[in-house]
Specification:
heterodimer; A: about 725 residues; alpha+beta; B: 2 domains; four-stranded antiparallel β-sheet; about 45% strand; Eukaryotic translation initiation factor 3 subunit I (chain B); eIF3i (chain B); WD40/YVTN_repeat-like_dom_sf (chain B)
């Protein structure tokens, strides 16, 4: 127990080691009952009671699942173990003991290891439990202290009482909206609210609202099934038609979250300020969303999570997920090709990667282990990103050895680690990497500096991933010195847009990767639009349409542009807009002013061609997020069929829209009529009172002579007065 | 028609009042000198010199002969409109915030601010027909102690001079009995506790409009304070007026004067907005000021209105035919 000495009646806080205080199991669960309460209590009991007795053996661990080897190989295995565990901590002299079975003259398949400190033993358990020596031998490492606990487990397996099955709400319910509307979430003040975007009625229809739902922000999962809220204790996921809580993941002080692209895993991260004796640290947890199980934790000093020494802050995401086409197959499987899916699933696990010193570390889920137990060595690597399609890793290594080793861009296929294509570059000051949404094309914007290092010029390296051998091209703008303001690929397409130029009115250019005539695979300029007030590009998620936005210094100017026809559909303004977002279907665009500005917080919703549908103002507006849609269940053939018969289908829907619009109009008219009648009735009642003799009599008394004038028309009387000022007779 | 710009004040406008015939406008500003203008042309008639502080309020008798003004110099003055001579002064110990002549012009209400530990108060004085007999005697003082918190920004007589209405900083709208000095009705959460900047009654005294910093203007039944209409704006509202001839209201205001310099005039929302009185829908707006609008007044004929801003200008807007074409 900690003794707090008081002098002069106050506590001397500086003499207290805060970390030594054992807090009682937390009651502070903010009304959310904790699933792991039993666990905490057990831990507490351990700490109080058996802690001292077992501390003798707290430096020892047991390693199970070792290969059973004959005497001849005994020394070799011992050496292997010494090497593995020696890296983690100092093994005491004679601290490694691997018993032999005297009968068979074989090792028993387990070993005891004693470290010099308890911390090392803890670290060894954490790091090597689940270590794959080879396929058949995955280490099972536990603390010696825990052995007793495991020994107590009865030999007879008693199946736990199965929990009664409770029907979960349909988490895809919002996708079944009869009119195909989309949802979005808004966060303003202390409120978080989910709306339907009702375009026919030109309004947002409230679906769900909750105050203090989140403590920092909200985020949809990539396919819209879950809404994540972030709290001090961890992350909660909500969904279904009633937006009930579906899962929660405890992670104290969590700041960042990241879903795996197909919603199977959740990664949460937190950075902690340096506190008494501990340097700044980072904790990253991986959870399985369906089971709520914590799969792996990465933690350590903050400097271990920085890619390079000169990186200042800590950048999220630390881990990047690959595109996971494989998981697409996994989730959208229909009963017919189940077998095939399973095969695919096995072939292509999910990957996530992080940048390390001179390497990229690629992990695979659900094992959560380093792929092939070794990281991808890339000296000096400073940037990487995954293709949104198949697992291809794009990496950039800047120039090294003061320019003697060239900078290098490389595309690597995983898990095979075959290099798809690479390119060496010179005089590079900076690069930016852009993948096309399906991973068909890859562009790198390269800023070269001149020999004198006084000025820079930009160019693009373009890769075609779908062609054999992955051919590449270099694209330079006509004026090399021009600044590149923005670059964006057309989603699901082969075109891209660039904003380039200096000053307040830059130019916008469109390029295609395929020539219109003949279809040659060669990049060429489609069109350049001169002097546009724009600094951001927002393509429709289905391509063809694009919004040029002049945000920040350009005060919120927008241009809706049709790239197929090369024509401007509309230009408009949303003063001081900070955010632009397309809905998942590409039918609507939102522009929003969020809390960074004081005035005019709120959002506007536009059609894809720039017609304002409606606007909402909200004080302290923080977030606007469209709910992403799940993957389409239609096959390619079905989609093609719909496209072919689009006219037939659209007619039906247009009729419905018209009907709703008319209904809405009549309803509004009726409501207006009612308000009018109500007001007129009120006025009539008042009028009767005023016109009563009693009232008029009193008024007459008050006003006196003025009473008669009241109500009489103001008559303008023009009076002409002639005044003779002087008469002068003029001599004739 | 282009608005007529009245450039006569050196400081922000505080109050605007038309006379009953609608041919004269009195403007008050923080620069001590209320000014009289022709409503038609915007020509200046003259100024009333005598106050020693910001002038917060003014009222004109029905015959357009007497002007009453209230100032932060703790006095309320009566002036001869034509000659500009001050013929009587009511001296208080607190700044004067609002004045209002009764129907028939035989009485006047004056409100004074809370100051040096003294709470806001409402004073009733007598106005004599014969100016020689006019005294500075106060008939009755109703203290706001325990009832009113903060300033009483506006005061207005109710129907038949039986009641009067007040609104102020505490965001509460009240109906008082003139005889007893008791509160008859109270709308506590009229504006969520945010200050009410303006209060004005319709021509027939049946309903009252309030303008508040909670970004709304509201219409209440002037007798029982039943909430009838709410007009939601996107800026703090400093003034709201009712058209005497059409089912419209006009409101004005803008971003807090403290924050004005930090954004452009477009972001400040310094335009006057016209709303449909019954449907509560915005119809249109008139731009021009480059500071928040502090005061609005409708001409009694309903064909023009004047706005006064923090920018020191008053603007007379003669409404075009296009306005009268609005259904």
């Amino acid at each position: 127990m900690l003794r707090i000495t008081t002098q002069n009646g106050y506590v001397e806080w500086d003499k207290i080691d805060i970390d030594s205080i054992d807090l009682p199991p937390s009651e502070d669960n903010y009304g959310i009952p904790s699933d792991d309460e039993d666990l905490t209590q057990k831990d507490g009991a351990n700490k109080d009671g058996s802690k001292d007795e077992s501390s003798m053996m707290s430096t020892a661990i047991i390693v199970d699942n070792l290969p059973e080897v004959p005497e001849a190989k005994f020394v070799k295995l011992t050496n292997v173990l010494t090497k593995i565990f020696g890296q983690i901590g100092q093994i005491r002299d004679g601290g490694l003991h691997m018993p032999m079975d005297p009968a068979t003259k074989m090792s028993c398949g387990y070993a005891f290891i004693e470290f010099s400190s308890r911390a090392e033993a803890d670290a060894a358990v954490e790091q090597t439990d689940g270590y794959k020596l080879d396929k058949a031998h995955v280490f099972k490492v536990s603390k010696f202290d825990d052995f007793e606990k495991y020994a107590k487990i009865p030999d007879e397996y008693v199946a736990p009482e199965p929990k009664p099955y409770t029907q979960r709400e349909n988490t895809q319910a919002w996708m079944m909206d009869e009119r195909g509307r989309d949802q979005f979430v808004c966060r303003f003040g202390d409120e978080t609210e989910i709306f339907w975007n009702d375009a026919q009625k030109s309004t947002a229809v409230e679906e769900y609202k909750r105050s203090f739902w989140t403590e920092s922000y909200v985020q949809w999962s990539p396919r819209g099934t879950y809404l994540a809220t972030v709290h001090r204790q961890g992350v909660a996921l909500w969904g279904g038609s009633s937006f009930g809580r579906l899962a929660k993941f405890s992670h104290s002080g969590v700041q960042f979250i990241e879903f795996s692209p197909c919603e199977r895993y959740l990664c949460s991260g937190s950075a902690h300020e340096p506190s008494r004796g501990n340097p700044a640290s980072v904790v990253v947890n991986f959870f399985d969303i369906a089971t709520g199980q914590k799969l792996r934790q990465f933690s350590g000093a903050q400097k271990d999570f920085l890619a390079s020494a000169n990186q200042r802050g800590f950048v999220w995401p630390i881990f990047k997920w690959n595109g996971l086409e494989s998981e697409d197959v996994y989730t959208s499987s229909s009963s017919k090709n189940d077998i095939k899916t399973e095969e695919n699933e096995k072939e292509m696990p999910a990957f996530f990667a992080r940048l390390a010193k001179d390497a990229v570390q690629v992990y695979q889920a659900p094992e959560m282990t380093l792929l092939d137990k070794k990281s991808v060595k890339l000296p000096g690597v400073s940037e990487f990103c995954w293709s949104p399609g198949e697992p291809i890793l794009a990496t950039f290594q800047p120039e090294q050895n003061s320019g003697n080793v060239p900078a290098r861009i490389s595309l690597m296929q995983l898990p095979s680690r075959n290099e798809v294509r690479s390119k060496n570059l010179f005089n590079v000051s900076d690069v930016k990497m852009y993948w096309q949404s399906q991973g068909d094309y890859f562009a790198v914007k390269v800023d070269h500096h001149t020999k004198s290092k006084k000025s820079t010029y930009s160019g693009f390296e373009l890769f075609r991933l779908r062609e054999p051998m992955c051919p590449m091209e270099v694209l330079a703008l006509p004026d090399k010195a021009e600044k590149i303001v923005a670059f964006a690929w057309e989603p699901k397409g082969h075109r891209f847009a660039i904003i380039h130029g200096d000053g307040a009115r830059p130019d916008v250019s469109f390029y295609s990767m395929i020539e219109a005539e003949g279809g040659a695979k060669k990049v060429h300029l489609l069109k350049t639009l001169k002097s546009k007030t724009a600094n951001h590009l927002f393509w429709s998620p289905n391509g063809s349409m694009i919004v040029f936005a002049g945000l920040k210094t350009m005060n919120g100017q927008f241009e809706f542009f049709n790239v197929d026809e090369m024509e401007t559909m509309a230009t408009c303004e949303h003063f001081m807009a900070t955010d632009v977002e397309w809905d998942p279907t590409g039918r609507f665009v939102t522009t929003a002013v969020t809390g960074v500005h004081q005035m005019e917080n709120g959002y506007h919703i536009w059609t894809f061609n720039g017609r304002l549908l409606y606007k909402q103002t909200r004080e302290r507006f923080f977030q606007f997020l469209w709910r992403p849609r799940g993957k389409s269940l239609l096959s390619k053939a079905q989609e093609a069929d719909i496209k072919k018969n689009l006219k037939k289908y659209s007619k039906k829907f247009e009729e419905e829209d018209e009907k709703i619009k008319n209904q809405q109009a009549t309803m509004l008219d009726k409501a207006k009529q009612e308000t009018k009648e109500k007001w007129e009735a009120w006025v009539e009642e008042k009028k009767r009172k005023i016109e009563s003799d009693e009232y008029q009599g009193t008024l007459k008394k008050i006003l006196g002579a003025e009473y008669e004038k009241q109500g009489a028309e103001i008559v303008t009387i023009e009076e002409e007065e002639e005044e003779i000022i002087s008469v002068v007779e003029e001599p004739l | 028609m282009r608005p007529i710009l009245l450039k006569g004040h050196e400081r922000p406008l505080t109050f605007i009042k038309y006379n009953a015939d609608g041919d004269l406008i009195v403007t008050c500003a923080k620069d001590h000198h209320p000014t009289l203008w022709y409503a038609d042309t915007g020509n200046r008639v003259g100024t009333y010199i005598g106050h020693n502080g910001a002038v917060w309020t003014a009222d004109i008798t029905r015959d357009s002969k007497t002007l009453a003004t209230g100032s932060a110099d703790t006095s309320c003055k009566l002036w001869d409109v034509g000659s500009g001579v001050c013929f009587q002064t009511f001296q208080f110990d607190q700044p004067v915030r609002a004045v209002s002549f009764a129907i028939g012009d035989e009485k006047m209400l004056i409100t004074t601010d809370p100051f040096m530990g003294v709470n806001a108060a409402i004073h009733i004085v007598e106005i004599t027909k014969n100016r020689e007999e006019q005294t500075s005697k106060i008939l009755k003082t109703i203290s706001g102690d325990g009832i009113v918190n903060g300033r009483l920004n506006r005061v207005a007589w109710g129907a038949l001079n039986e009641t009067f209405l007040t609104a102020g900083e505490d965001g509460v709208l009240r109906v008082w009995d003139v005889e007893t000095g008791k509160v008859l009705h109270e709308a506590r959460d009229a504006h969520k506790g945010k200050p009410i900047q303006h209060l004005e009654l319709s021509a027939d005294k049946t309903h009252a409009i309030t303008a508040s910093l909670d970004k709304t203007a509201k219409i209440f039944d002037a007798q029982n304070l039943e909430l009838l209409k709410t007009y939601v704006a996107d800026r703090p509202v400093n003034a709201a007026i009712i058209s005497p001839i059409r089912e419209h209201i006009i409101l004005g205001g803008g971003q807090d004067a403290m924050a004005v310099t930090t954004t452009s005039s477009k972001a400040g929302k310094f335009d006057s907005k016209i709303y449909h009185k019954i449907f509560e829908e915005e119809i249109g707006g008139i731009r021009g000021h480059f500071g928040p609008i502090n005061a609005l007044a409708f001409c009694p004929d309903g064909k023009s209105f004047t706005s006064g801003g923090e920018d020191g200008y008053a603007r007379i807007h003669h409404l075009d035919n296009t306005y009268f074409d609005i259904k």
